Amino acid sequence: MKQFLIFILILLISNNLFGQHSKPDTLIALFCNEPIKLDGKLDEPCWQKAVAIDNFTQREQNEGEPATEKTKIAVIYSTNPIYFGIWCFDSEPEKISAQQMARDFRWSSDDNIEIMISTFNDNRNGYLFVTNPNGAMTDVWVGDEGKDFNKDWNGVWDVAVERNEQGWFAEMVIPYSTLKFKKDSAQIWGINFERNIRRKKEQLMWQGWSRLYDVEKISQGGKLAGINNIKQGTKIELKPYVLGGVEFSDGNVQSTRKIGGEVNFDITPTLKLNFTVNTDFAQVESDRKQINLTRFSLYYPEKRQFFLEGKNYYDMNIGGRNKLFYSRRIGIENGMEIPILGGMRFFGKLNKTNIGIMSIQTSSKDSIPTTNYSVIKVKQDIFKQSSIGFIATQKYSTHYYNRVFGTDFTYSTSELFGNKNLIVGGAFAVSDTKVLSEADKSNGDNLSYNMYLSYPNDVIEYDLGFTTVEKDFNPEMGFVRRKNYQMFSTELQFNPRFDNLPFFRNLVFKPIDVNYYINEETKETESIFYEWRPLGFMTKSGDFFEFNVMHIFDKPTEDFELIDSIYIPAGSYWDNRVEVQASTFSGRKISTEFAVSIGEFYTGRRQEYEFNTHFNFNKHLNISLDWQRNNLQLPEKSFATDELGGRIDYAFNPKLQTSVFGQWNSEDKNVLLNYRINWIPKIGSFFYFVINQEISTTDGIELKRTTVIGKLIWRFAI
């Protein structure tokens, strides 16, 4: 025990005691009213006058060492907009890694520049803009220094890139209407920059280059100053759409024509009011169908852009994936689309208060009545990095309502033991459900609450949590995977690095990972998941491997259907499994991920195989394939399930791309094909052309349904 405590102490003090900073840590923007041609050449006089920062330091592979390639960044601004000039020098430009060109590209595989801007200068929230040597664009809304990470936020901005024998160079332009900031005459923004050189697995940071912090940890960044007397710009934004389509199904032809849109008002520079009418999501890609081999609900991610924008203003979790607001409850009922008549949203930040209000009205369809969905969420910043919040949701129809009230608290610090991260928090919620035509009934056993502690650091990671969901807790605008339980969880992981191991970046050991469930009413043990990892590692070339041993206990109190009239009897089951997962570096021309899990499964055995591969042919063409198989041997019968998927992405340029996505599984026995063209005729406007097909493979191959849709969304700024 003494040796173990000494080892823990060494790991705790193995990093410097304070976040790493170098001078200059303030970037001064230059006012420029001369025209800037967005071409990546950086040859205008203003760029020559601007003072650039170049003091970048390695975060990876060698923390604290000087950068091996020079990087410069300068900022110039006008009354509208702001420009970033980026010089990424490279001594071997022919080895620059740039596989992708599409909008919202996966930037983990490419050389890139990441710019994190906190216009509120609150050490919490901001915007992340990413580009690569092909001029591909990705943007993210970041909340709570990365705890909220909304990759589906789309800002209005642009970038152009030039590549030559000296490296790659970029000009980025961001209108002030994209960035929400205070009305102060002199702006001070939090800012940080990250550059990735993939062939070297080198990651450079301007400030805060400790492995304890990502670029989203804006409290460890620097400052952007010198911006004076700017205004928000656009006050009103109109985004009408027109849609036309036709569907062929079982010999019938049905046409569709629709118009609708959104109106956005900037009430203040940091608060936005949005109205939507006849909301439509025809351009959204199909859900990935999943075969459920559990007795609990499956979670499907939101893909509709209307609900993804600003989603962080409405989120509140009460442990795991339990959510008090889950936007897929609006406009989707039992997998069927319910038309949305319209609604409003009001969201943003006022001083230290985050506000999110939404009210949506859906139409009636079949036996489903017209229904109103409303949510209000308020979160107050307290201390340096902490917060307290409140949420209320209501689902209301003529004869029925469901309400939920919740509150949460988060204490966060990056200064534990000098520079370590610690998060402690909790949440509490109560539901109220009533059929208006019936007499009042008690809403007992309708609570949920959780408490947690997280120590997310480079060498040591530790998590501890406790969650309760009572049997009648009913958040109909939220998501709860299971009810009537109390769950204790804890996880400890070590990620040591050793300089004398040339092949490995770090090893990974996880002695304990436990989720322990008891029945909330009877207090009897219901489920146990215990995993330990005797070996895992990340190589210096970016490859990953882990070997896990799992012990799983489950005690269903009644028989449940596994699949196709095959039932698991009520009882107590202990299953022991082993698992291997591995992946190669995603920046290679061909990269793969695979996982194999073998062991017991209730009354029999199960072997699970998962394989994903990605082919990068060039910056325009990327193809990915995936396959998941489960072999099950049960007393009733032995059988296999298969899920197949594939995607072809072709980007003509960063503003015009096309894709084909296909999927099939052995339960539905349907091939679902989705073909999309996405064109950005001007920044903020979109054209979509979509073909969806459903092909049955039950008895041969039969085309069941074809839908062809075109949709144009045009942005007007007033």
Overall mean pLDDT stands at 90
The CATH class name of the domain at 20-228 reads Mainly Beta
Report the uncertain regions: 1-18
CATH-derived topology of the domain at 20-228:
Immunoglobulin-like
What would you call the shape?
A: globular
Distance between the termini: 68 Å
Describe the biggest sheet? 24 strands, antiparallel, barrel
Q: If helices are DSSP runs of H or I spanning 4 or more residues, what is the number of helices?
A: 3
Structural class computed from helices and strand pairing: mainly beta
Helix percentage: under 10%
CATH architecture group name of the domain at 20-228: Sandwich
Query: How much of the polypeptide forms β-strand, as a percent range?
Result: over 45%
- Rounded radius of gyration (Å): 27 Å
- Strand runs, count: 43
Please give a quick description of this structure.
The chain has 718 residues and is an all-beta fold.
Structure overview:
This protein is an all-beta fold and 718 residues long. Among the domains are: 20-228, Immunoglobulin-like (Sandwich), CATH 2.60.40.1190; 556-679 and 693-708, Beta Barrel (Porin), CATH 2.40.160. The chain contains three helices and 43 strands. The strands form five sheets. It has a 24-stranded antiparallel β-barrel. Strands 1, 3, 6, 7, 8, 9, 12, 13 and 14 form a nine-stranded mixed sheet that branches. The model is unreliable at 1-18 (pLDDT under 50).
